[in-house]
Amino acid sequence: MKFLSAACILALLSLTACSTGSDSDSESGKTTLTVFAAASLTDVFADVAEEFNSTEPDIEVKFSFAGSSDLVAQISEGAPADVIATADEATMDTLAGDELLAGAPEIFASNTLTLAVPEGNPEDIETSNDFTGKDLVVCAPQVPCGAATNKWAKQNQVSLDPVSEENSVTDVLGKVSSGQADAGIVYVTDVARADSAVEQVELDGAEKVVNRYPAAAVGASENTKEADAFIRFLRSEKAARLLEDAGFSTP
């Protein structure tokens, strides 16, 4: 009996040690919020997270940036996320239709297409009529910027013959800024954050093709309270100021 008692005591001590480690983590008071966000939000969301943390110091925000369609696919396959912010409503509707969201998406920003060309515009591309024979790069059709590009081309009767279709707008921008492409259709915010690496050429009629950015809490999230707090902050005056400084429009 004494042997059994000693074994039980050892087991209890072991459990207590494990429990203490868990309590130590909880005592830190920090909740990690995983946010899946469209690639075009990469820079501005770093500033948003910093400002959000000043008002919610107990929430640590971690981001995963990619093309919106890729993010939706990851969540559909069970990837752990608390919030998703996409570059258009159609992509978000996929998750809503599959009942993978915890609530209705909230619109917090919008973006407009433009044309990026390398510094100095070596091919003298001034309008969409100058695309012929040039190395044009666009987003793939399943990506929000690609869907918007196709819509713009159809509305303006522009024939696109891209040499490459990329899975995110940042990839398009990268090919233009590195000189691998003569031009790329991106968002106005992408040109703004590229500093002088690229130049902007306006696309006629682009103002009629505006992508609205929604954010929503993911249904499988265990941090819905914190997710809702982040989404509310995205619609705050502080966040709107940051988004507008980055070239976005806000509600």
TrEMBL record:
PANTHER family: MOLYBDATE-BINDING PERIPLASMIC PROTEIN (PTHR30632), SULFATE-BINDING PROTEIN (PTHR30632:SF0)
Gene Ontology process terms (BP): molybdate ion transport
Stated name of the protein: Molybdate transport system substrate-binding protein
Binding site for molybdate: S40, S68, V169, Y187
Family: Belongs to the bacterial solute-binding protein ModA family.
Metal-binding among keywords: yes
Coiled-coil features, chain-numbered ranges: none
Name of a matching Pfam family: SBP_bac_11
Gene3D superfamilies per record: Periplasmic binding protein-like II
Domain of life: Bacteria
Keywords from the named record: Metal-binding, Molybdenum, Signal
MF-aspect GO terms: metal ion binding; molybdate ion binding
Xref: NCBIfam families: modA
Organism, as annotated: Brevibacterium marinum
Signal peptide: 1-19
